[in-house]
User: What shape does this take?
Amino acid sequence: MPFTYPRTVRFQETDAAGVVYFANVLAMCHEAYEASLAASGINLKLFFSNPAVAIPIAGAGADFFRPMFCGDLLEIHLIPKQINEHKFEIDYQIFATDKLAAKAMTKHVCIAPASRTKQPLPDDMIQWLRRWG
Assistant: This one.
């Protein structure tokens, strides 16, 4: 079952043409990611400052199907999928007025911050993957 994140497009997220600037879609997706972590009971402050575990984004992309404007009510659906013991990806579907406006994807890898070497995903992330995947 996907995690659903509601949000409103802000004026600052649009470009000179009045539509959401492409890079801001990935920022919105990251907001949804953070909200899904918090909804699973993960402490965001500890998660993003953990000296033993880091889970950076190793790849990202987006496709756009219709414009999104300031004031539009969005619904972002997030579906994570584990790739192997240290990698997962998240598929996002962004709906505006119940119509698919964009799709995005982020790839994440779990590392030890000091050595920058891959390591297995921690248990709380495995539980997060199972809950929303």
About this structure: The CA atoms of residues 2 and 79 lie 5 Å apart. The mean pLDDT is 97. The first helix runs from residue 22 to 39.
